[in-house]
Amino acid sequence: MSGPDLGAGYLHQLSRDEDGATTTFTYHAQSGGQDANGPPRGPLDVFGFVHPGIPCMFGGPRCWHRRFLLPADAAPRVRAAYNRHRFVLETMVRQAFDGAPADVEAGVAETVERVGAPLAREGIEWYVGGSAAPWLLGSGVRPGEIVLGTTREGVDRIAELLREYLIEPAAPTDWPDRGLVRGARAFLGTFQEGVRVEWSVPLEPREPLPAEEWSGRAAVARLETTTFQGAELRASRPEYALVRAAEAGRGHRLAEFVRERGADRELLRILLSRSGLREPQRIELRRAVGVP
Questions:
Q1: How many H-runs (helices) and E-runs (strands) does the chain carry?
Q2: What is the pLDDT along the chain (292 residues), one digit of tens a residue?
Q3: What residue ranges define each of the domains in the chain, with the CATH number in brackets?
Q4: Rounded distance, CA 112 to CA 29, Å?
């Protein structure tokens, strides 16, 4: 459908594979060397790309890909998202690997302005989660992206409201950290400055786990109400981000924040029981937040 195109040290292709009523649209990205102003600064798995175990049809053994299952008539919006993705990829790579700051303030403000009122009128629940939630609640630990929680209906509606910013279409797809989901991603801002925003729900309806953050049912997650630039927002409790940060080996600053404001002991117990932390690490984290 497009390519070869250049961006962020990669050569890009957009392909379409027909299989009955379903079409698989695939973003391909191959290390492009000097032809693509490379080499790339870092791998694309931080953006949900998969590095296949065998060479792919575009890019050979150095290819990464992202796949989306949509009807064939979705091709124009997939192409638009693909083009924006490769145009902003350089900025996203600099933010992920070179320490370039993500413009979180402008991103949250734009999100609130674009989606807040329409979703409120339509009764669609949404909230800020992930690492942006404790920042919004006052932690001072800047996130690299904004993650939104919402419902199944909300996934498509948010994508519609942010359509010119989409870098991945709202579609059934595979997010390596969450499995099969219906989700979308956007980059709010210009090609040179902005912030990545993502949102998803599990692909198959299921009974959510207690206090699950991304179940597709906003009432399941433990949320707090806060304000941002005069607007009232909901954000997930900082314990969610704390446990993920601890798993990544960087939970100290968030532990201090949770301790100062008072930990939700039950939520922390639930999240630690599901985490990949070993028992000594769990004990250390509980002590760090003042929970015996």
A1: 9, 11
A2: 887 888 788 888 999 998 877 899 999 988 876 666 667 777 888 999 988 777 676 656 678 899 999 999 999 999 999 999 999 999 999 999 999 999 999 999 999 999 999 999 999 999 999 999 999 999 988 999 999 999 999 999 999 999 999 999 999 999 877 889 999 999 999 999 999 999 999 998 789 999 999 999 989 999 999 999 999 999 999 999 999 999 988 878 899 999 999 999 999 999 999 999 999 999 999 999 999 8
A3: 2-74 (no CATH), 104-217 (3.30.460), 237-292 (no CATH)
A4: 32
